[in-house]
From TrEMBL:
It is an enzyme of class 3 (hydrolase). This is dUTP diphosphatase. The keyword Hydrolase applies. Belongs to the dUTPase family. It comes from Desulfoscipio geothermicus DSM 3669. Keywords: Hydrolase, Nucleotide metabolism. Its EC number is 3.6.1.23. GO terms for biological process: dUMP biosynthetic process; dUTP catabolic process.
Amino acid sequence: MNYRDQINALLDQQDAKGQSKYGHPLEQSTAAITERLYHLAEELVDGLRYTLWVIDKLERRLKMQVQVKLLNPNCRPYRKYIHDAGFDLRANIPAPIKLPPDGRVKIGAGVCMAIPPGYYGDIRGRSSLNVAGILCPGGTVDAGYTGEICVVLVNLSGEPYTVQPYERIAQLTITPIPEVELVEVDELAGSERGNQGFGSTGRV
């Protein structure tokens, strides 16, 4: 019997008692009904608390944990919003680095990670730097690599750019790897596109 049925049954019971004894439904029974409703409310709250506790435990069990070693406490991977895909990586440099036009530089991110097997770290550029012409060509952090993560920046802005210490220079996503088996064949299955490569689809 659910809570609504229990309340309705209690009201019917008290109504019958009040009608037979006093001639008026629910007379002299308000206190008893109120007390019972309080008990039912407490049971409902306890049930909700338990449900939330179970949900929290399930979320913690499903959440993947990645071990992180900080080489510099100022370079903790940063994710502003909980649902953001990537963790921002910072420049682990003691002083500013000037990056000339068309120049490139490799910068340590001040962090090491033990990415679990079946996943890899995908290094991507930050949109704000991309718009400014400071590009990160990307990179892959394999699960077996536990050294310092590094980022490559290329200056295509046409103007000198100065990388500041602990500036957020790239982002890292933890990406699953599907199990793939390469099968050697003499001929590939045909497709509509075939061997049409760069520029074959046009510009518009």
